[in-house]
Amino acid sequence: MPLWLTLVLVVVIGAGIVVVIAVAGSRAGQRHGYSGMSGETVVRCSRGHLFTTVWIPGSSFKAVRLGYQRYQRCPVCGKWRMVEPVADAELTDDDRRTAAEHHTGRLP
Ligand SMILES: [Zn+2]
User: What is residue 67's predicted lDDT score, i.e. its pLDDT?
Assistant: First the structure.
């Protein structure tokens, strides 16, 4: 098998695995009441600040993933903190409004 074909197969299989992990993770999150999985998600830092971030299970470029939590910069306090998604049932309208005012950008 030529080297280029091997590389193409590795890239395609790797991309497929990432997509499967992202889809399975987002479905699991939605079953637990986190509607924003695979998109904009309201999260809470370890100090209680609410903000919105792009949360795609299995992929992140601006955070360190630690199970169902992440270590990433909180845009409210400006510090790197443990962050976890907040279930929709726990959010009030004021919480959603506050979270919408603080967004980390489009990069997961
Ligand atoms: Zn914070």
Answer: 78
Q: Flag whether 106 is in a domain.
A: no
> Does residue 46 lie in a domain region?
yes
| Interval between CA 62 and ligand 1 midpoint (Å) | 15
pLDDT attached to residue 36: 61
Q: What are phi and psi of 14, to 5 degrees?
A: -60, -45
Higher pLDDT, 12 or 75: 75
The DSSP bridge pattern shows strands 80-85 and 39-45 to be: antiparallel
Structural domain count of the chain: 1
Taking the centre of ligand 1 as the mean of its atom positions, its distance from the CA of residue 100, in whole angstroms, is: 14
Whether 107 is covered by a domain: the verdict is no
99: how many CB neighbours lie within 10 A of its CB?
A: 23
Provide mean pLDDT across the span 26-49.
78
Q: Taking the model in full, what pTM does it have?
A: 0.66
In a domain, 44, yes or no: yes
